[in-house]
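I had to read the description of the data format several times before I understood it. The format is easy to grasp once an entry is in front of the reader. For illustration, here is how one protein appears when written out as sequence plus structure tokens:
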Amino acid sequence: MNLNPKKLTAMLAVIACTGGILAASGFVVPGLANSAVVAKSSAAMQGYTKQGVADSTVPVLKVEAPAPVSTVNDDLIKQMTKEQIQQIYDYMDMPGDPKTSGRELTEAEMNRRLVLDDQYVYDGLRPKKLLPLQAGQGDLYLDIKTNTYHYPERAWTDEELLQLIDWSYRTNLLASKRNITPPAVAIPQKYSEAELMARASESVRKLFDADVSKLKSSVLLLEPGYGIPSTWSVGYSPYKSSTLRGQGQEYWQYSVQIDPDTGVVLDTTVFNSVIKRTPIDAAAAAAIKKDNSWVNAAVQIVKDKQGEKRKIVKATLTNMEVNNKRGMVAVDIVLEDGSKYNAELRYPSKILRCLIYEPAGKAK
């Protein structure tokens, strides 16, 4: 049987509701998700920001040595009965998106859930009982017959949060064991994981002066979908980043997109867990248009950090109406052969958030 992509999308949505937007590449069992679903989840994650400290001038890396080892493995399945496993398969095969009923989690409960998630993965913390699958066994339960998650109307306990976390991981593990429908167009894998990670880490080093060697890494092939072309996605984040986020600590994580055919780095982006964005009002936007320092800063990044040697024929501010609301200043930098960079700088610090590259012939 094949995994129902719609069910997986809905399942991830329920998971996200219980703990905020999660980095899908780090949460979903490798090989489980349709990459288009992951791409969609990643796009949602990129839009998530939290008010907090002002822009830092240097990325702060939270590293741990030795790296913690995940306890989420096939032992979770081996401990389950055939009936319990079949219940999860039945749930996956149900049509329609799951519904929710009851009080949503508060921000404090979401933060507790994030910390518990890391304790579940790395410390082996488990709930005393599995998530109830029918009414009468607790205030939190999943009614499989009606495809509905029932949440408590009161404050959640740690046990309830753990039950939902545990259910999510068990479901993901079992889903990864099923036959996944192959993509309609087979994409040749021309580059090894080591080659992709080497290119990604070098791009992060050049642009952000960051050493990612001690961070948790992931490599995922994103299939075409949702208007996004196929790319290799390489991610770096601190181990136990859910704990850092749940505790309100600052950390940085990096995402690099690589063309599967040419091996060219297309997008290198840095995310900050608590960075504060400052929307650009009309007066500030008018001042930016007259201030060449924004364009000059972007050009210097492309020349000095990226190491671009081709001649730059044009550099202009772009998409200001949208980016003003996001607190970003974007600069298009066009090269002599028609290739283009888009450098996105944070306002008002001019710190680089991402550098996107469009080769000649693919640039819009």
